[in-house]
Structure prediction request, 493 residues.
Amino acid sequence: ICIIEIVLGVLTLLGLKMKIVSSLLIGMMLFFTFLTWHTANCDPSSKFKDRDRYESTNSIGQEKAKLSKENKDIIVVSKNSSELVIDEMKQPQCVEDCGCFGDALKGSVGRSLTPSESLWKDIILSYFGIWLLLAAFKKGKIESSGHTSYIIGGFIVILFFSWVFSWYFPLLFTGLALLGALWCLGAFKSILMQNTGVILWSTLLCVLMIAYVLAYDPIKDYRAYAVDSNLKERMNDGQEGKYENLLVYENLKTGENREYDASSKKYIESKIWENKSWKYKEMTQKEIIPMRIPSITEQFNPTLTSEAVSKFELELPFVSNFFKAPMIPGLRIYDKTYKSNMEIPMEEYSIDGFPISQYVIIDTIEVKGEAPAEISLREYIISEKQIFVMVAKKIEDANWSNINRYKEILNLCKEKGIPMILLVSSGPEQVQQFRKKYHFNIPIFINDETELKAITRSNPALLIIENGVVKEKYPHRSTPSAKWINENLIELK
Prediction:
């Protein structure tokens, strides 16, 4: 779709094949306008009927069948030895962020367009599209004398958005696209060859850019984990919402509504509850300060359970110290019956459990408590002076053609006393198979896959983080050698 949009844009600026181009443009705009109208009018309080089919042995289906006895929103349509069919009234998942311009708008302005704002954007673009369509079918083509003004206007629009997004590569891309297109118009005499040349040139530029992005990473990274991004700040740039509960009264004669803060002086002095012309209608909540979630949420939380910890994770002092059983207050008690001493945590002691007729407290001591069940590296990663973090969304699907280079970097980190870890979303079985196959003995921790995709599209990739700031990020195809890293990036301790 991106390629089609760009090619249509180039053809529009040059006024080529405008009947076909304008028809395609208006068709796309009608589709997107319908889509944004649908999302803008989504009512989260409404319900719709959804039919699900389960195997008779499916635990979710069986649980819903049980709930149907008390929940009127769940109805068992049919049930037999092989299949369970259930109708359920569900609430729609309304889209609050249309995602227009991807992360670019969020990274530069702070948020994307709301569905309503996106709807108005599409309505305005559709309006211009209709005029293009009418002009194309009336004249057959846009007058060539207007090409220069159209191109200048296009550049002004692109310049504006480049300024908003703080990235001027789109101007260069547009310039290359139009220069190549104009060359095609001058080089070929046949109209067919001219149009074909413009389309092929524009498509080639798009394919080259997309191929680079897919092979490496976005040319411009607007995400929270971009190079030079301060992860500490991105974890704390959210904002708690502030809301006010208001009492709504309705005028019985006119239908007018009035809202009052129950604790306000205005409400108390109005004594509206005594006025028979008004009746209490409802309590509503008014947003004073909108809530904003932080750029990096709790989804970034590399963890590992005590059962999954291997000797390779324990090589990290932070991990080995964390899983050591802590010393806690305890008691040394003498057992009169067996004539022996015993040591217990102080929190386990009680008179009922250790009656004084049988037990005597000898001394207060420290005893070993229980080791934590799970470790989190969230704070550890952003507090280390320097740490190398590898990311592989799915360890079994990653491209490990550079595994030897990663092994050399790991050995360098061990030599310099710098922690190096690998974040994956795969399970313990996949991790064991990976270690057995590649003998890459790096500490491995688990994180949510969606968040790993936000860190990098490359699978795998290497990040170098210093005091919580992302200093470098390398896709697997451009990972430097250990020697180069040692000479240019390793901080002396």
About this structure: DSSP finds 17 helices and 16 strands in the chain. The radius of gyration is 32 Å. Residues 115-139 form the longest helix (25 residues).
